[in-house]
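Summary for the funding panel

The consortium committed to producing paired sequence-structure records for every protein in the target list. Below we show the first two records in order, beginning with the earlier of the two.
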Amino acid sequence: KCYTIQSQSPLGAKMNIAQLFDRCAASYDQDRPKLVPCFDEFYGTVIRVIPFELSATFQCLDLGAGTGLLTALVKQAFPNAAVHLTDASEAMLAQAQIRFRGMPGVSYAVLDHLALAAVEDYDVVVSALSIHHLPHGQKRELYAKIFRALRPGGRFIHADQVLGPTPEQETVYQAAWLAHAREKGISADALAQARERISHDVNAPLADQLQWLSDAGFEQIDCWFKSFRFAVFGGTKRR
């Protein structure tokens, strides 16, 4: 199943988020560096804080994996890791299957975030630019499920958008993002699609989300990287 959220558009129509990403699946990767101002540091930080040696064998979940962009970086750095990709968009996961065709240690499931099984299956859970689509109550519910899905000592690493802590700072975040996208030469069509997806975002302040992680039981909670609205944060489950 796929979750829906209330549109922020004037029409107030409900929109299936998976359908929005189905539509941009083929071009999604090529637009990422134009739409994520801190692309290299943002994704690179996720890899740097995975708590394993490069040769280690471990179980990783990429939650809301899309086309497998983050999984590709995980597998490049940790070739022995087994990564399970989940996403609500079949078209996005189809792109991931093309990307990883013939590669061992990669599996897939079309799955709504809240259908995540709360069992201790994973050593690492990563997620990039996905959880912000959930309403805040469902974010909190998901953080608790992620906590239970991790094995003792496991780490959750969340690379996502956050809301400015004040309306004034949120305005700064929006202006910085738009200026970067235009400087990088984003096409009018790609920018229009991005803005449509953004209209369905349900971003939450970083401070609130760090508290929700604590409420879920995580320890060693930290924000390892932040640039305007893009942040990499998470925590560890006690051994």
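The next record, for a separate protein in the list, is shown here:
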Amino acid sequence: MRALFISGVFLGFGNYYRMLREYTAQREDIDAVHVELHTPMWLKLAAKSAPFPTRGWDFHALRYLWLTRPMIRRWVFGPLDICNRFDVVHVITQGNALWTLDLKKRCPRVKVALNVDGTAEQDIEVFGFSRAAKAPFVRAEQKMFDAADLIVTRNAWCTGSLRADYGLTDKKIHVARSSFKAPRASRLDRSMTPKGETIKLVFVGNAWERKGGPQVLRVHQERLADRCELHVFSKAAPRDDKARNVVWHDVVARETLMNELLPSMDVFVMPTKVDQLPWSVLEASSAGLPVVTTAVGAVPEVAVDEETGLIVPPEDDDALARAIGRLIDDPALRERLGRAGRERVERDFNPDVNFNGLIDRLIGLVDGAGVER
């Protein structure tokens, strides 16, 4: 099968793209070409979001969708010669896939698979975006989803919206979770920090505001600075060297973070306000850390309350402080939650299963086998 993978590589999409490259390279039954989408400066400026919440009225996602259509269309029907060279195209995400409508009209033989982690309807229903502001994007999504041959979701949470809001059947949906190989090292490789000793709390997230970074820092400084040491990994965090018992980390390689730094911590905290399935929660759980987070989006697929972590309401300082305090005082709870989290990631987010399953499904799409999940 001749496959073209066009992938946005910003934020967590880059991790998924790298795993796709690794697994397609291992297969002899697929000839894969990968194209990375790096947003040019003019497009960043033209589709820039407002610096304050607008509930979608800045239309930045819609502007990006419209502007990428002629740009990508010029590539795929020009140098890439998609109609003659490929059997299937896999696109991450629907936000840069409006051009696939042109592809299905011009080259109906080429199969289209759209890879998504959430929908505009979920932005409205779950995250409070304006329905009127999001209406044009919802209509565009409906057209793209109807025209595509397959919708690939990176979490199970998204599938409910695809069925209820867009009328898709299970036959057209394939779940290929965000997955990666668990790190060699784990917090479980050494004994738990005893009660009464200072533990290490860690926050990882470049979207400092959206991921709840200010709340973590505030709660730590006002209530927990004498009981735990906070480690911050974030390019966007406003570094304050006067903050008590806080360690500000520079940008580090992901390999270093996963195999050295995360296993040296005790508790991961990220009270995110708007999210689908954050890679950082997956990564912390894979390193054997109990997680304190919120139940937004698909987060509960990884962080299960009282099983792999502790769930708190968004923007609730009291609940966040109580949850962290419980873990500070209870080493056995830390170990139980951390161990269950690592086991869950190894079982449900296994890349051998998820990425090979996706490739098999794409092959079935092309040869007409109709492979279903």
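Regarding this second record: The longest strand covers residues 2-8. Residues 187 and 257 are 13 Å apart (CA to CA).
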